[in-house]
Model the fold of this input.
Amino acid sequence: MSQEFGLFIGGKWEVPSGAKRFATRSPSTGEELGSFVAATSDDARRAIEAAHKAFDGWRRTPAPKRGQILLEAARIFKERKEELGSFVSKEMGKILPEGKGDVQEAIDFVEYMSGEGRRLLGETVPSELRNKYCFTLRQPKGVIVAITPWNFPVAIPNWKIAAALIAGNTVVFKPATNTSRCAVELTKVYEAAGLPPGVLNLVTGSGGAVGKELTTHPLVRTVSFTGGTDTGRGVYTEAAKALKYVHLEMGGKNPQIVMEDADLELALEGVLFGAFGSSGQRCTATSRLLLHKDVYDRFLEMLLKRLKSFKVGDPLKAGTDMGPVASLDQEKKILEYIEIGKKEGAKLLTGGKKLTGGAFDKGFFIEPTIFEAKHGMRISLEEIFGPVLSVIKISDFEEAVRVANGVDYGLSSSIYTKDVNRSFQAMERLEAGITYINAPTIGAEVQLPFGGIKNTGNGGREAGTVAIEEFTEIKTVFVDFSARLQKAQIDG
Done:
């Protein structure tokens, strides 16, 4: 029997009376990894109330002191990197180097946010009147709800939690159900770092059971969500009815453009990592390869040749290039899209099947799949979130831009070219929150803003210098030391 875990509310691990439980399992082996409480709306309410109770003490804690706690959390994450990385690989399915990379991204970001405790910058500007100062300062909002996905079960929660905490907010953390063990271990790190009771609370279980409470409770000030577009719309509309601020990070249909002058070997490494890293289960994954007609046949030949030695298997084993997809639901959805591609007339070049036999029968393994497709097919427009790549032939840069922009999403984009002028045109014209030049569509760094446009989100950004914006209110302050009534905008 696997280890049992509770909820973390008000600084205590607890199992409510009569609580129902669920288990998470390895998508590679089927091994049970833990048993968790299926929280109810009452549990969610108690977590919100605990966060609200802790808010005043936490907001009054000097920001540099909050930063010291975050720095200690980063140290513990670093100390536990190997262990936590293996939890990521076991529970989510990405290969071990990527699992440890998930944890490293959390370390980098928490360290970065700890330094914001000595900044939290405002503005000082001149007044139009004499003997008057004008400035702004940032203040925490209150209780923040962080709803996070399974594909980066350590990094993405920390993007939200660390930024919210350094700004002086308290947090209710609702992770994806199938990566609950990673969420428990993450919460334990903050507990060990000395976070006061109630500042971070963990509620595990189904979003259907707790979602309404988390998005509409009067004490919740902001909901920060990363996940699927349909779920994000539901979170947004529900929370908006209660006038909550909602930050959404959702889907992508990211193009890698390879022009006729590209370094093809470099572009090949980029598309292999971008399309099949994490089994294509990244919101920034390369799902479209736009190949210039002059290099189309040659590049496809290179790509298919490399895939012959591309190893799918145990994510914990050295030498594995790609692990399983994350769940039975994921497997079903991806295989359905592969059938859609076939029915649309896309030419299947390689892959397209569930891997079976031996150890494969215990998990959710799908072959790396490549279609020759045309722009406008569903597999070229809709997010699949799996190891499925649509290859589209383009005749010139103008067509590349038109096809790249011709989807409902706008998260990441990439172009491989040696033409500096074309590179800068791509930076300006590609409709995406992120553009890479001579690099794949994945590889964000924590000191830079992350997010997209169109159906990818609703305008905000995470990470980087803007990380705390969704978690703070700006207060404008006027200090008049003239000792008389001064009237701005009034003549005389």
User: Anything to note?
Assistant: Residues 416 and 438 are 4 Å apart (CA to CA). The longest strand covers residues 132-140. The chain has a mean pLDDT of 97.
